[in-house]
Amino acid sequence: MRHPKQKLEYLSTLPLSSWVLDIYNTMQKAQKRSFHVTEITRMVLANCPCRRNVETSEQTVTRTINDYCLDAEDFQGKPEKVIFRRVGPAMYEIVDSLTYADVIDKLHKITFSDQAHQRTWQSFCERAEKTNPGKWRQMSNSEKLSVFGKRINEPSWNQVLTMYQKLDDLVLQ
Fold first, then answer.
1. Are strands 34-36 and 84-88 parallel, antiparallel or unpaired?
2. Residue 76: what pLDDT?
3. CA gap 34, 87 in Å, rounded
4. Among the CATH numbers 3.40.1350, 1.10.3210, 1.10.10, 1.20.272, which is that of 17-106?
5. Domain regions of the chain by residue span
6. Which terminus of the chain, N or C, has less C-beta within 10 A?
7. In contact, 120 and 152? CB cutoff 8 Å
């Protein structure tokens, strides 16, 4: 699936939080094709400061990859959303030609790195579902996030985000 460049622009501005996105981004930035899970874990921990539970990180990376892996050894059947391919024992690569938007479309759930964005996203989705349920249900994750990324900069939705940020600040004081 190919996405317009404008869509990617909005997607890249959103503070998404997902192990699979962190793994994908880390592998994409590296200059080689396949990686051992230990190497992937090390790179993700170095590139993503929020991922710091070193004791279980390699297990989490392995499980995340296997959930989206075409031929994971410990997975019965094929996953419905494939991002990775197993190329050897604990060795993986990204399935050919996937873009960031393609990976977002394969996510089971959209999660943001902060609660203000997460609550604004939930409110936005509820509103979109009520306003035009048929269209909203037919849209892919990347299309929904693209609309959200564009609208979050408009005054009305920016006010919602700002309100949630202020509430978070009050709670944390």
1. unpaired
2. 63
3. 7
4. 1.10.10
5. 17-106, 115-172
6. C
7. yes
